[in-house]
Design goal:
globular
Length: 146
């Protein structure tokens, strides 16, 4: 008796909306759970070549936590096309001024670096405060396990 492997088809996928409150959650652990939801690896119908993930709305991105000395020692880099165009920021500066970019960068490092991965990243919505624009989708609050 042969068993058939179920392969998800694009039309059959049902997407849900999840709401994550980032208050006092560890940055890396939270982002790895978010990346699993975006890619669909938390579903039994996961198929690597099909985007079967769900939508994620993250609120309170400014209140994310980090352990140890990462606030002052970890650095984020941006490079322009010009000589001497390296800009360096600490994590403390990123949390204060650019909390949305901080979480988006962290999740970007955890999804595939392909067209499919870029499509998955578009299902992530991050907000620095507690208000968000996705009330019409009625995202269901989720508690991440770590």
């Amino acid at each position: 008796m042969q068993r058939q492997t179920t392969i998800a088809k694009k039309d059959e996928i049902q997407r849900k909306w999840y709401l994550v409150d980032a208050t006092d959650l560890p940055l890396g652990r939270m982002c790895s759970q978010i990346a699993m939801i975006l890619t669909g690896r938390n579903k039994p119908i996961y198929t690597p070549n099909v985007d079967c993930g769900d939508y994620v709305v993250v609120i309170n991105a400014q209140k994310v936590s980090l352990s140890g000395e990462k606030l002052d020692q970890k650095k984020y880099y941006n490079v322009s096309q010009y000589a001497g165009g390296l800009r360096t920021r600490t994590t403390r500066e990123m949390i204060d001024k650019y909390p949305v970019e901080l979480i988006e960068r962290c999740v970007h490092g955890m999804v595939p670096k392909t067209k499919l991965g870029r499509a998955m990243e578009k299902k992530l919505f991050v907000y620095a405060g507690s208000e968000h624009k996705q009330q019409a989708q009625q995202p269901e609050p989720i508690t991440l396990k770590f």
